[in-house]
Design brief:
595 residues, 6-stranded mixed β-sheet, 5-stranded mixed β-sheet, 19 strands, 31% helix, 19% strand
């Protein structure tokens, strides 16, 4: 291709044979059947096909502009060891020159296990120093592809672990993206340093889209994360203040291709606007590095985590390998017991065992009767919540443990004090019991509260409710609406999370903690409500906002028959104080997942 393109460059009047040869090359490129393309696919596609799913994370970044000194300095600050098992998606605009692109990708490849990359408009521009080497932008594109092959940077789709595939999409913008005036602007000079062997306005975007078609024909199993440089949807945020700006920012064909491949998250760049939101069942994410002028002076530039080893997400992540403060939660472990005949003397035996459990580092433990500090279960049912008796599965008592992390909880549950004292005594009096674990999504405080109470709703939701589904997004939004109610600060706080913790599902966590499978009762999610007094819960339960949440959750309850109901709810006395956020771990101590 380069030789034919150079021949045309030398022949000012356009040599017919050179033009024919160049056009034939353009057609062949669409098939990706060259020796280098075959070698690229064979050497890269299968290497992580059987890699365990919980051993890798996926991060994203766009618009690095490595040829700006402050951006190059930031890239070098990315921790050298924290991401060695992880994957980075780079959604274009790495730099203007091929040399700078190579230097940036070399740096990133040293810090991440795999780097997936697609070009943006800056890479496709032919700089003054590159005119002699690259006759046009397609020639430069293939030079960049060759550089990626040398560095081991991925430009083709490939699995990165079991059930997770990354799909790069090359792209260009179309004037049709401007729905008010879907025609090219004859007076515009977008990307004037790009040199196309075709019509820049009408054919360039179509050609780039056709380069993806061979990969869209392949079946991808499990979850797909796709990415492009340009915006795939008109409703994504970008700077609309400039005249005709919509003509040079996106192309809706990108969205069609991403959805055809079954993408669950699509990463994009170009707009230099941070974003993460679900649109019509697909989550769209942009985490630009951008320019210094794009951000406030005190802004900390970060990566975006897309996959935490267990679930898809859109979570900012520090270049030092640490999550933002408050991201990693404490663990809330709650066990429920049916002890209808528990006598005061027996309760004192349990409290004596509890004193020893409270001495363990990183945990707080309480044990008490269902209800609140000032109300028995029956009084709570009569005065506050008539449904409590029916939905509490006959439970009479509960053990509440707040742990700094899974390791602290595990140390307590596997201790002699728990196994030979508390658990043995509890088993003597309990007709049955079960437990559930969840990230602590609300701050707990019992001091100076009228009658602090913790409400737990244990839910078994249908199998179609995944964290990347629209239904899940609606439930999260409904829970957030409760937290935004006026006048509830300090009185009511709620959180909705899947059961389990971090990279562990509830079943996996039971194994890690040494607990029997049956103790979790099959609950998949937990809705936690902390109130300053039962009266606050009564007020909330009668509100329209809570009614919307209740209706949304009831629609998702599993219809399958099981030993336990799909919904069980409890009121517990709140007798401890703990922030939802876990204490910071030591620097460079990597935690996979988090919640």
């Amino acid at each position: 291709y380069v030789e034919f393109a150079k021949a045309l460059q030398l022949e000012q009047d356009g040599h017919a044979r050179a033009r024919k040869g160049r056009n034939a090359c353009l057609q062949e490129m669409l098939l990706w059947k060259s020796a280098s393309a075959n070698a690229r696919f064979q050497s890269r596609f299968f290497i992580d096909l059987r890699r365990p799913r919980n051993t890798t994370r996926v991060f994203a970044l766009s618009d690095i502009h490595f040829d700006h000194r402050e951006n190059e300095d930031w890239v070098h600050t990315i921790d050298d060891s924290a991401f060695q098992e992880d994957v980075l998606i780079v959604a274009g605009n790495v730099a203007d020159s091929k040399v700078a692109v190579g230097r940036c990708l070399t740096t990133l490849k040293q810090k991440f296990r795999r780097v997936f990359y697609t070009v943006g408009n800056h890479e496709m521009s032919v700089t003054h120093a590159e005119h002699a080497r690259y006759p046009d932008s397609i020639a430069k594109l293939h030079a960049i592809i060759a550089e990626c092959d040398e560095l081991g940077v991925d430009i083709f789709p490939a699995p990165v672990c079991e059930g997770l595939t990354i799909l790069p999409l090359v792209s260009w913008y179309s004037a049709e993206f401007d729905e008010n005036d879907p025609f090219p602007d004859p007076n515009a000079s977008y990307d004037k340093h790009c040199k196309w062997p075709m019509d820049a306005d009408l054919q360039a975007w179509k050609y780039m889209a056709k380069l993806n078609e061979m990969f869209l024909a392949k079946p991808y199993y499990g979850t797909v994360i796709s990415f492009s440089h340009f915006l795939p949807r008109r409703d994504l945020p970008f700077d609309r203040s400039k005249k005709n700006s919509a003509k040079s920012v996106g192309c809706e064909m990108i969205d069609e291709q991403a959805r055809a491949a079954g993408s669950k998250i699509h990463v994009y760049g170009h707009s230099r606007t941070k974003h993460g939101q679900v649109h019509a069942g697909v989550r769209y994410a942009n985490m630009p590095l951008g320019f210094e002028t794009d951000w406030p002076k005190d802004h900390e530039r970060r990566l975006m985590q897309l996959f935490d080893g267990k679930n898809l997400c859109t979570q900012e992540w520090g270049a030092d390998g640490e999550p933002p403060l408050g991201y990693t939660k404490r663990v809330l472990h709650t066990a429920f017991f049916v002890m209808p005949g528990l006598r005061e003397a027996d309760r004192r035996k349990l409290q004596a065992a509890l004193v020893k459990l409270s001495t363990f580092s990183g945990v707080q433990v309480t044990f008490g009767a269902i209800g609140s500090t000032k109300r028995t279960k029956q009084e709570f049912t009569n005065d506050i919540w008539p449904e409590l008796e029916a939905v509490s599965c006959e439970a009479t008592h509960s053990l509440v443990v707040v742990a700094e992390d899974v390791a602290a909880l595990k140390a307590m549950l596997k201790s002699e004090a728990y196994k030979r004292e508390f658990a043995v005594v509890a088993a003597t009096f309990a007709q049955r019991s079960f437990s559930v674990d969840v990230p602590l999504g609300v701050d707990l405080k019992h001091e100076r509260k009228p009658d602090p109470t913790l409400m737990l709703f244990c839910l078994r939701l249908g199998p179609t409710l995944t964290e990347d589904s629209e239904d899940h997004a609606r439930l999260v939004k409904a829970a957030e609406a409760i937290n935004k109610l006026p006048g509830i600060e300090g009185k009511i706080a709620v959180a909705f999370h899947p059961s389990g913790f971090g990279r562990f599902s509830q079943r996996e966590l039971n194994v890690e903690l040494g607990l029997e499978e049956a103790v979790s009762a099959g609950f998949t999610h937990v809705f936690v409500v902390a109130v300053d007094a039962p009266e606050s819960w009564k007020m909330l339960s009668q509100s329209k906002t809570y009614g919307k949440w209740k209706a949304a959750i009831e629609a998702q309850l599993s219809k399958l028959r099981a030993a336990m109901p799909s919904l069980a709810a409890f009121a517990l006395p709140l007798e401890l104080t703990a922030s939802a956020a876990a204490p910071r771990k030591e620097k460079n101590k990597k935690v996979l997942g988090g919640s």
